[in-house]
Amino acid sequence: MQAVRIAELTGPDALELIELPDPSAEHLLTPGEGVVIDVRAAAVSFPDVLQSRGLYQFKPELPFVPGAEVAGVVIEASPGSGVTAGDRVAAMTMIGGMAERAVAAPALTFALPEQLDFAQGAALILNYHTAYFALKLRGHVREGEQVLVHGAAGGVGTATLQVAKGLGARTVAVVSTEEKDHVAREAGADVVVRSDDAWREQVQALTDGGVDVVIDPVGGDRFLDSLRALREDGRLVVVGFTGGAIPEVKVNRLLLRNTSVVGAGWGAYVLSKPHLSREIGAEIDRLVASGVVRPIVGARFPLARAADAMRLIDERGALGKVVLELG
Fold it and tell me: Is 79 in a helix, a strand, or coil?
């Protein structure tokens, strides 16, 4: 099979297309418990870019095949996995997804709803499960509340906007360009403001004093203004740091309006809780069936151009989810 490999941690330029043996279910950490997938689409995300430089918390031994999210057709599945050969699925592989075949754990393999194509399926798990986890389980979003989303035109951002709408919230998107404004509105944002303008003041004016929840996958220098944009009892949920800098907060600020700062680390949390993955998956399926969740796929590349896909994300040019299509 063809696969993309990283042999040195020098960023996207290190990616190379090579031939590797086909995997089997026995390649999992627990032999015999796995799902082998004929990959039709593989997602490319910011963690992949970090991993190409050795900067992500999960550091596989070199050389390795990157890629954590795929969609495709089951070739082989262990008993009790819940899927069988021929099923359309979306899966988290954690590693090895940028290849013609990949292996996933049963707890992170989900039937792909008929309403979604393979590219949308590759965009489904990491972003939408993270969004639900951040909004509902960590941010405790309630119907009628107002949710502000940073990086709202990216994969996590568009997913968060849609899931928040599905939970009955009013959504406020923060974006940096006119093009990203259009993407955020396509994802269902009720209000869009520009990060290169006085966005915090605009948000407070448009929301009658502030939002209930901020979802922040960006970090950086907007963190303090995010706290200031919260109303009383507001929650700021930290998802990541695509802006590069990890912000710090003087905790006395939390006393002013009785606000909270909460972390939302979905991946490590659910790995030891397969029942929770299933529960979140069921909720996402419900939102797909209702028509609220429709992953927005942006740039599409063939497997051989995986490096270009990573560069697009690295240069902050991605709109929606970036996907490699394999057939």
Answer: coil
Q: How far apart are CA 102 and CA 108, in angstroms?
A: 13
How many degrees, rounded to 5, is the angle at CA 19 between CA 17 and CA 25? Answer: 115
Where would I find the beta strands (DSSP E) of 105-210? 109-111, 146-149, 170-175, 191-194
| Fold agreement (2-124+295-325, 127-267) | no
- CATH code, 2-124+295-325: 3.90.180.10
Distances (CA, A) of 313 to 36, 47, 154, 210, 322: 28, 10, 9, 31, 8
Domain regions of the chain by residue span: 2-124+295-325, 127-267
Provide φ and ψ at 72, rounded to 5°: 180, -150
127-267 — its CATH code?
3.40.50.720
29 has a pLDDT exceeding 60: no
Distance (Å, rounded) from C-alpha 2 to C-alpha 17?
A: 7
The pTM of the whole model exceeds 0.90: yes
For residue range 168-191, what is the model confidence (pLDDT) as tens digits? 999 999 999 999 999 999 999 999
pLDDT, tens digit, 9 for 90 and up, residues 78-132: 888 889 999 999 999 999 999 999 999 998 999 999 999 999 999 999 999 999 9
40-70 pLDDT per residue, tens: 999 999 889 999 999 988 899 999 999 999 9
CA quadruple 130, 134, 140, 146: dihedral, nearest 10: -100
Asked whether the CA dihedral 299, 133, 85, 104 is positive or negative, the reply is positive
